[in-house]
């Protein structure tokens, strides 16, 4: 029986920008081609990515059939948060009337861990952000974006994030085929990452958003007064009021929770 490739049928249709407590959404778990409302399996081969197979057809040919740019004309971009969610990526691109044909592949990355950005985003959630951890080895989704898609994603990330070019030889960027990427772009928080006051270490990111917000409210009277008493109140208030987002972000810094991340290229 054929598998329905729609995001809804796959349980991947939740858009964190529209449902903030669902952040970061559900990521791609296997190499795939996002086509907008569908996610097609991408067969790994010991060949360059453009020759991996989509329904028996080389990826570059499948992209060309959709009027899309081949892999060689695209920019690999590492996701640590909701950009690993096909629904979020499609939402960002289709909302700007762009093609949402995007290869998305989990890639092994060394030296980068996932924390929480020390700011409150437009949708009201506290988004994920990368930080340097030499001991870390993580599977992170890489999306191959054409020029217009790349520019659009930039617009959704700036000014809260800056784009860094991560060298493959320093971070071991390895595709499932064993091929090494020469480099990839990565969005690094302009505010640094949140420190857990109990441990002094970066708070883990990319997990249960409601639990994260509840923990932040519990640890800070200032945040509790601004955005509490609960996670649903936080995202509702923050999404509606830029000033509250700015005050909450300032509260992170005032509490000494914002750890700068100068180590990225």
What does this structure look like?
It is a single chain. The chain is an alpha+beta fold. Helices cover 27% and strands 25% of the residues. Helix 6 runs antiparallel to helix 8. The N and C termini lie far apart (48 Å).
What structural keywords apply?
265 residues; 8 helices; alpha+beta; 7-stranded mixed sheet; 27% helix; two-stranded antiparallel sheet; globular
| Unreliable spans | none
- Biggest beta sheet attributes: 7 strands, mixed
Indicate the overall shape: globular
Q: In what range is the share of β-strand residues? A: 25-35%
H/I helix tally: 8
Q: Which series of helices and strands comes N to C?
A: EEEEHEHEEHEHEEHHHHE
Question: What would you report as the Rg, rounded to the nearest angstrom?
Answer: 19 Å
């Amino acid at each position: 029986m054929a598998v329905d490739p729609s995001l809804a049928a796959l349980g991947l249709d939740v858009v964190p920008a529209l449902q903030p407590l669902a952040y970061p959404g559900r990521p791609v778990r296997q190499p795939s081609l996002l086509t907008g409302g569908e996610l097609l399996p991408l067969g790994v081969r010991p060949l360059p990515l453009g020759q991996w197979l989509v329904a028996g057809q080389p990826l570059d040919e499948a992209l060309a059939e959709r009027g899309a740019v081949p892999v060689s004309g695209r920019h690999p971009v590492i996701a640590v948060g909701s950009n690993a969610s096909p629904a979020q990526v499609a939402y960002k691109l289709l909302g700007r009337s762009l093609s949402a044909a995007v290869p998305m592949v989990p890639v092994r990355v060394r030296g980068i861990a996932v924390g929480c950005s020390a700011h409150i985003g437009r949708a009201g959630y506290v988004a994920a952000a990368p930080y340097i951890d030499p001991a870390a080895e993580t599977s992170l989704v890489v999306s191959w974006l054409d020029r217009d898609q790349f520019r659009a994603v930039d617009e959704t990330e700036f000014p809260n994030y800056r784009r860094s070019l991560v060298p493959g030889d320093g971070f071991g960027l390895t595709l499932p085929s064993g091929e090494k990427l020469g480099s990839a772009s990565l969005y690094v928080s302009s505010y640094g990452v949140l420190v857990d006051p109990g441990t002094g270490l970066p708070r883990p990111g990319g997990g249960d958003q409601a639990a994260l917000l509840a923990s932040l409210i519990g640890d800070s009277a200032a945040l509790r007064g601004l955005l509490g008493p609960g996670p649903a109140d936080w995202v509702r208030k923050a999404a509606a009021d830029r000033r509250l987002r700015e005050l909450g972000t300032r509260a992170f810094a005032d509490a000494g929770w914002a750890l700068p991340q100068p180590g990225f290229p």
